Amino acid sequence: MYAEELLSVIPLKKVIGQLPNNIKDISIDSRSVQPKSLFICIKGYTVDGHDFAQKAVDAGATIVVSEKELQLEGNVAQVIVPDTDRTLGLLAAKFFEYPSNDITMIGVTGTNGKTSVAGIIHHMLVGMGEKSALSGTIGFNLNGVLYESANTTSDALNTQQMIFRAKMEGCRAMVMEVSSHGLALGRLAGVDYDIAVFTNLTHDHLDFHGTMEEYGNAKGLLFSQLGQDFTKNKFAVLNADDPWSEKYARLTSYPIWTYGLKNEANFRAENCNYEDGITTFDMITPEGKFPVTMKLLGEFNVYNILAATAVFYGKGFPMDAILEQIEDLNPVRGRMEKVLTDLPIQIYIDYAHTPDAIEKAIEAALPYKKPGKKLIFLVGTGGNRDKSKRPAMAKKASKADYVVLTTDDPRFEEYDSITGDLAKGMLHDNYACIGDRAEAVRHAVAVAEPGDIIIFAGKGHEDYQIIGNTKYPHSDADIAIKAGELKFVK
Ligand SMILES: CC(=O)N[C@H]1[C@@H](OP(=O)(O)OP(=O)(O)OC[C@H]2O[C@@H](n3ccc(=O)[nH]c3=O)[C@H](O)[C@@H]2O)O[C@H](CO)[C@@H](O)[C@@H]1O[C@H](C)C(=O)N[C@@H](C)C(=O)N[C@H](CCC(=O)O)C(=O)O
Ligand SMILES: Nc1ncnc2c1ncn2[C@@H]1O[C@H](COP(=O)(O)OP(=O)(O)OP(=O)(O)O)[C@@H](O)[C@H]1O
């Protein structure tokens, strides 16, 4: 792209030196700079991108965009702007030619259920023959190929690049998990959403947002980001049982579809029944009542399915096609996913790491508990992140008969500090604190008797543990199966 054309989107700038004619790439990371590219210096939490500008030039950057004049050696022009974060969004969207305008963009936000709802929508789209891309905690899924990503919602550059790749690969839609960090930090700048979905808002991430009010306001940005272009068929899907939905409805002028189990809503469920690994319920829709049978477990998944149904109905799909897809769905990876084993115990892998998700995961498993048998719940939490939620997590975990308190990614925090905070919330004494997660998993299996259920929460799809700065391989399922075979298989 012509450098002058690219830079035309930045209204306030000072150019030092001779601009090159063309720019072949944009980068925010000196370690992946290509020749003839534009490097933008982003001030991070740990380091400042301005300190890597010379490295970027050495790697071939011919324009550096920064917030101050830098002493750079080499064939490079500098563009000084007041705010590189804001500039990044403008440049990235321009460089990739506003790809979100050309495909249906579906954003899913909320404390819990983003991965589940986004995954469900994506799989239903694919099942209906629509090419769709998916981005979120599990990575970037482009036509079945999964690319890793560091964040649930990637930085503004990577976001535009993913949408561009989806468009170039012929996707008609892209489903994105939208985190509150992503919204608050402008990672979604320039994304033209068509459909915005809200799951729920409960305690999480207060280390970053400070208060629930701020956290809720950050999520609201998704709904205002729908914009005001009434020539487009846009809409929002809101959870009628969550009080934040009323506020979000006021943030957009587009039509609203609501769903829920308790309050009046366009899509509701009645007569929910959970038996033998199958969930059944009656779905009440604007077109009447339909019986639903699905393999997804728990009431929270009934909410997730109602949200997905509202998305498809709002897009104009007929109810029979929607229901056919729901019956075919498999559990989302690592979300109340049953581990298939010959062991005489039931093992579930789950990603619950908030008080509300823990409560929902335990409630989902209780209907499968046999009289006189135990529900064992292993729960961990991350080090150096929101500590205020820890006692509340253990309080909810107390609903299980036996609880193992451990870590998920301890990072730089001592095991005892994490499990000690969790233990403050326990409501009964049937629990153990074991910071080493592998040992904790083995302990959960050791206390299990035939017929018991164990839920390993907090790691879900992840196959690693971050200790210090290092990612170590870790799989709750593999460790549990090995321990179970030693204990139960003669
Ligand atoms: C606290 C936080 O949000 N950090 C994010 C931030 O990292 P950072 O500020 O530390 O960035 P940095 O590493 O200091 O780098 C600053 C700049 O220098 C550049 N750099 C750095 C090193 C170098 O050699 N050369 C170089 O050019 C970097 O590319 C970057 O442009 O920018 C990175 C790139 O965009 C993110 O990956 C990183 O997310 C970290 C991994 C993270 O854990 N974030 C969490 C808090 C988060 O965002 N979570 C949400 C919610 C998840 C949920 O719902 O549960 C999410 O969306 O993931
Ligand atoms: N609608 C829901 N309401 C409450 N809890 C839910 C809901 N859907 C899933 N959960 C629970 O929350 C856990 C995390 O679900 P999911 O990964 O879909 O949420 P998320 O919002 O993507 O979380 P994260 O951003 O941390 O990945 C699940 O393993 C399940 O226990």
Automatic annotation (TrEMBL):
It is found in: Cytoplasm. Carboxylation is probably crucial for Mg(2+) binding and, consequently, for the gamma-phosphate positioning of ATP. The gene is murE. This is UDP-N-acetylmuramyl-tripeptide synthetase. Residues 334-460 form the Mur ligase C-terminal domain. UDP-N-acetyl-alpha-D-muramoyl-L-alanyl-D-glutamate binds at S30, N151, T152, T153, S179, R187. One of its GO terms (cellular component) is cytoplasm. Residues 108-311 form the Mur ligase central domain. Residues 23-81 form the Mur ligase N-terminal catalytic domain. Pathway: Cell wall biogenesis; peptidoglycan biosynthesis. GO terms for molecular function: ATP binding; magnesium ion binding; tetrahydrofolylpolyglutamate synthase activity. Its cofactor is Mg(2+). Keywords: ATP-binding, Cell cycle, Cell division, Cell shape, Cell wall biogenesis/degradation, Cytoplasm, Ligase, Magnesium, Nucleotide-binding, Peptidoglycan synthesis. It comes from Ureibacillus massiliensis 4400831 = CIP 108448 = CCUG 49529. The keyword Thylakoid does not apply. The modification N6-carboxylysine is found at K219.
